[in-house]
Design goal:
CATH class: Alpha Beta
Shape: globular
Order of helices and strands: EHEHHEHHEHEHEEH
């Protein structure tokens, strides 16, 4: 793949999807930085996992090391103040009356991209990369392609310059995401994702499965497990 001369900022949680997006960005762009968000999430362990993932990428993929720049972590604890969800408080995960799981934090991704755009503008970065997907997901409306295309327009107008939002997983199911992982980094990247990323909503790092660590029951674990099984069977 020819290197795109633009510089990118990856919304990087330390989970499976954002790790694959980081690998994709490192493969594609000339320079890549990462940004994470501390918003009072129950799975706060992801903030530690993201550091392990970055370190492993630098160690295992030396050719990407020269491209990987600064990491930024932003305090967005106001999200926990604004929302009462199973992702930010000790509540049982269940479906709400609107058909969405109560792990949905309203406007979370809109806020993430907006503050990331501010960081990107300051750092001279023109591409925002996120792992949002509406093919195989929990139904969150702020993960949908139309939502993020509209946000890209609004951010670019607000900055009076072009800011691209890229979502490389938007039309992939989880099985295809595992396949993309293998294409990007082979067995080494597959093992890195399994061992070091964290996606479980409950922050479970006690139970190790073939597909990685997690409770095995929450919506995130369920999607990850089903995708892994489908990828192996393909």
């Amino acid at each position: 793949m020819a290197v795109d001369p633009r510089h990118a900022l990856v919304l990087f949680s330390g989970g499976q999807d954002s790790t694959v997006c980081l690998a994709h960005a490192l493969q594609r762009y000339a320079h890549v930085e990462t940004v994470g968000f501390d918003y009072g999430q129950r799975h706060l362990v992801e903030l530690e996992s993201r550091l392990h993932v970055r370190a492993q990428l630098l160690e295992k993929f030396v050719h990407w090391g020269a491209k990987l720049g600064q990491d930024h972590v932003l305090d967005l604890s106001l999200l926990a103040q604004l929302s009462d969800t199973a992702l930010t408080s000790e509540r049982e995960i269940e479906m709400n009356a609107g058909g969405l799981p109560n792990t949905f934090v309203p406007v979370r991704n809109l806020l993430f991209f907006t503050v990331a755009a501010s960081v990107a503008d300051r750092r001279g970065l023109s591409v925002l990369v996120g792992g949002m997907c509406e093919t195989d997901y929990s139904g969150y409306p702020d993960c949908r392609d139309n939502t993020l295309k509209s946000l890209q327009v609004a951010i670019s107008l607000g900055l009076d310059k072009s800011m691209t939002i890229e979502t490389p997983l938007m039309w992939l199911d989880k099985a295809a995401t595992w396949a993309m992982t293998e294409d990007l980094g082979g067995e080494t990247l597959i093992e890195l994702v399994i061992e070091h990323t964290h996606s479980c909503y409950l922050g479970d790092r006690e139970h190790r499965h073939a597909w990685g660590w997690g409770c095995g029951l929450c919506p995130s674990c369920d999607l990850r497990r089903k995708g892994y099984d489908a990828w192996l069977a393909s």
